[in-house]
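Progress report, Aim 2. The chain analyzed during this reporting quarter is listed below.
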Amino acid sequence: MTFMVDAPSVTVSGVHHAYETAPVLHDVSVDIAPGQSLALLGPSGCGKTTLLRLIAGLEHPLHGSVMIGDTCVAGNGQWVPPERRRVGMVFQDWALFPHLDVETNVAYGLRRSDRKSNRVSEALELVGLNDLGGRMPETLSGGQQQRVALARALAPQPAVLLLDEPFSNLDTALRIEVRTDVHRLLHELGITAVFVTHDQEEAFVLGDQVAVMRDGRIVQVDTPQGLYTEPADRAVAEFVGAGSLIRSTAANGKAESPCGPINVRIEQGPIDILFRPEQLTLLNHGDLTVDLVEYYGHDVMVFVRTQPGDDGASNLLRVRCDPNANVRRGDKVGLSFTGETAVAFPA
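Predicted structure tokens for the chain:
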């Protein structure tokens, strides 16, 4: 398919929004570079879908503005309706018309003149459904229906593609397959994309940048690696990726831990130290106890119980090990920290 589009940037500035008297978004600002994909990551009710709908033009912001390229499409006295924004949207439930066949569904958003072109067949070929144009939606699998929804969004050749939890209705194996196909397609097309998810793995795979949302605010925007290694606060650290937080006290940039003394990024005071599973290594001898072993094929996650602290409580530390690791529940082990400086937060 000849997908000719000059991918624009998307800029959201100081956006506030509410439904009746319930505030939903508070001073939200984010920039998406041309041809890049942004994942909006957060728990249900944090405002992700509302922000997507504001970019699409399905909602009017109470305050702030939305720019697509050099055009202000909402705010500052401007308003561009959805059909003129060159935005394609894939909804969570796919929103296919059950009484229309695949080709007619894909053609629905096209102008009459474009329906007679090759747009429909080209869009179906893009998503690997070029032989299913005459089928009805009810005869398709969930993955095929999701691809039809994607083809319908791509057929008008949008400048920006918006996806709202696009894989949530698929089973695990199919979700991974379709997600990989969409990831490849976005890169091939070079289209600016924004998608909503509550799945951290999905956000990390598809997003060039990830914006973590909480309570109607964006609390951190970074690359997947940046979010994982440098979370902005304790809540982001717990939400993004596996990890364990251990209470300690910093003195001159050092703190005691189950791995012995380590460097931390807080000089003084009570802290919580963040340990990612791959930052820890099991030692053959020690006074810690293996509490649980989970085998995943590509690796093994070992849960190690620490010694009780001053408050009498112990913690579980996750340790990612080689799949051939010879470790069992109840083994006595030690731990070492593989990094130079641990991320820590004020307790």
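The chain has a mean pLDDT of 92. The radius of gyration is 24 Å. These observations will guide the mutagenesis work planned for the next reporting period.
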